[in-house]
What we know:
Blueprint: H1 4-17, E1 23-28, H2 44-54, E2 59-65, E3 68-73, E4 77-82, E5 87-92, E6 104-110, E7 115-120, E8 126-131, H3 155-162, H4 170-175, H5 185-195, H6 208-227, E9 269-274, E10 277-282
Antiparallel strand pairs: 1-6, 2-3, 3-4, 4-8, 5-7, 6-7, 9-10
Helix pairs in contact: 1-6, 5-6
Amino acid sequence: MPELPEVETTVRGLKKEIINLKILDVWTDLNTKDKRKNDTVANPKYFTYFRQEVKNKKILSAERRAKNILINLSGNGTILIHLKMTGNLFVSSKSNVLREEKFVHFIFYLSKNKNLAFSDMRKFGKITLLNTKTAHDSKHLKDFGPEPLDKSFTLQKFKERLNKKPNSKIKTILLDQTVIAGIGNIYSDEILWQASIHPERKISKIKDTEFKKMFEAMKEILNKSIRLGGDSMSDYLNIYGKPGKFQNEHKAYHRTGEKCSKLGCKGVIIRKVINGRSAHFCSVHQI
């Protein structure tokens, strides 16, 4: 699943390509009776409503909240897009040919001969419409923790958020979107490797100096991945269909069986399932 850097990369691309364009029409081949998707464009009745509400609206801005993409429109509407496991957004000057592409299931037809296509192999993605004024209080966004790259998110606040669950394992807490938003399996593994912290350590057993190392590693790694265009080890591509490069920087994630690359360390990267999620870490220096 795309994490904070991948979604941020997508949003930055959208800011360059679609701001001030008008939505001329939308198309989808999604058609589900799954009640869990009643308020998404996958539901035919909701799609009819969505189409009516977004047609002829101007795109004013784009932003990210956690792993969600928010496209703000004229007239007080905000389109929320969650890429889920295999979703990608592509900007193109193509038209109907996009419908022939196997995994494209939703298209925004825009002014100036541009289109924004949503490709989603497994069809887990979500597109819905929110009221801009209340979007961040909606059920889709209200429970997320703070953004880790916000300037206001200090070391002290980082410690306070993690200490809300002192008996939980650090790997699990870093993945908890209600504690801190946007971090998933890839970046939690990389953060803990750099901070030399074992993923099963309980929050209550982490020292102040280790909180600082983890906080600094989090900021550094997330920013580095954004600079590199995100991580494309799995399915992620940017809006131009190009992969990111952070997968070339992995120190722990999916490095099972390899020698640890930390200077002077003689450990090996191992994999272990912790509370249902995979963790990759060094057998020696992460304690």
